[in-house]
């Protein structure tokens, strides 16, 4: 089995993926970056409708993650663990520690950008789990934008090679969850995490690294930066649609365009 060193954030979704992989017995070390508070405060100066939408959005996210990732507020302590801050993530101690593990594969999820020096200190093969379908949704808040664009079936995850360019590495696999009536934005986001964890477990137990076929991202897509998202965007999800965009999609009330997904288990992609 492939020996993996994990680098993840500290939110429940990150720990869920980590614990799923650790349970396989393939993880030889886990670097945990302490991330920001999960429940942000609304910015000053918002109109009342936007303040309420902001509070609803992040309260719903917190509730959804506690439901879907119950029991994953802690990491499995059966593997060596190094806890770091954003400032020390790419530090010498982290590089030395990763190098000492002699892993076959580095997998990152929910950490800040990794330096080229750190990547050089780790195994030759390095993957990132991106919360969004690349290349169409790269960067930040990329599980939100498909809903804003009224394309909930474009909400998913991408496993790709780590490169110096954000979310631009060659793709290993796309993961998308099944949409069901009653799913809100955060339900789909959580189900996407569960799906990518299941797919990743299957990948590392099915393939040798030499068997992995990578696919280049054929278009630049869209790189969303933090400043692209504003609380006012929430009006579309919560006031115009009351968070029932999935129901509208399943009822055929929204266009059903499909992304061209890369599936490592589909032999036609070999």
Automatic annotation (TrEMBL):
Residues 84-177 form the Formyl transferase N-terminal domain. Gene3D superfamilies: Formyl transferase, N-terminal domain. It holds the Pfam family Formyl_trans_N. This is Formyltransferase family protein. It comes from Paenibacillus yanchengensis.
